[in-house]
Amino acid sequence: MTALRRSAVVALLLAAVSSAGCVVLGIDRFYDELSITFDERLLGTWRNDDDNLTVMVERSDWRAYRVRYEQTIESGTLTAYLFRAGDRTYIDLTPARGQDFGSFVVPVHAVLRVAIDGDELRVSALSYDWFEQTLRAGQVPAHLGAVRGEREQILLSAGRAILEPWLAAMAPDDPAFGPATVFRRRSN
């Protein structure tokens, strides 16, 4: 899991569409419509050289973002909503809207804590290691409805009415979020 901690965003971006293991995903979105915000500074191309990952963020419909990612082993497109919970900013990633994957595929949501400072984008994902340990010990807050999925991912079945206040109440150093991964803006 050390590699997951170092590159949590890579795992989430690659797994959000496929629901692969070693990630924490929500069955419902992490925000309500009143908390959605839009920040022009997020638009553009971002690069994390450590993981050979490039992320292109574009404006999409309404206040959504279209997020395309490219890595040597995979590429894809996601829909994202930036939102505020408490005094922090998060982004909710889900499979691209407008694509029908069939009745047996449920779109899931990944949440990342986001901080933009000039040409630096810092993102932190929910910590799989923390959830795995607390789930095993029976200490995950019951209202989150955390369960282990078929592919060893951790699924939160709580609805947005529970998830958003849970995020808002978190301390900045809450261990439920892993360390930040840093992306640098690339000039076009």
Q: Would you give an account of this structure?
A:
With 188 residues, the protein is an alpha+beta fold. The protein has one domain (2-186). It is 18% helix and 37% strand. The protein contains four helices and twelve strands; from the N terminus they run ααβββββββββαββαβ. The strands form two sheets. The protein has an eight-stranded antiparallel beta barrel. Strands 1-11-10 form a three-stranded mixed beta sheet, covered by helices on one side. A hairpin with a 5-residue loop joins strand 10 (146-148) and strand 11 (154-156). It is globular, with a radius of gyration of 15 Å. 35% of the residues are buried. Mean pLDDT is 88; it is low at 1-20.
Name the assembly state.
single chain
> Helices and strands, in N-to-C order?
HHEEEEEEEEEHEEHE
User: End-to-end distance, in Å?
Assistant: 34 Å
- Overall pLDDT score: 88
Strand order of the largest sheet: 3-4-5-6-7-8-9-12
Overall number of strands: 12
Level of helix content?
10-25%
Ranges with pLDDT <50 over ≥5 residues? 1-20
Number of helices: 4
Q: What gross morphology would you assign? A: globular
Q: Report the sheet with the most strands, covering strand number, pairing sense and barrel closure.
A: 8 strands, antiparallel, barrel
Structural class: alpha+beta
Number of domains: 1
What topology does this entry show?
Elements: H1 2-6, H2 8-18, E1 24-26, E2 36-37, E3 44-48, E4 53-59, E5 65-71, E6 74-85, E7 88-95, E8 110-117, E9 120-125, H3 128-136, E10 146-148, E11 154-156, H4 160-168, E12 181-186
Parallel strand pairs: 1-11
Antiparallel strand pairs: 2-6, 3-4, 3-12, 4-5, 5-6, 6-7, 7-8, 8-9, 9-12, 10-11
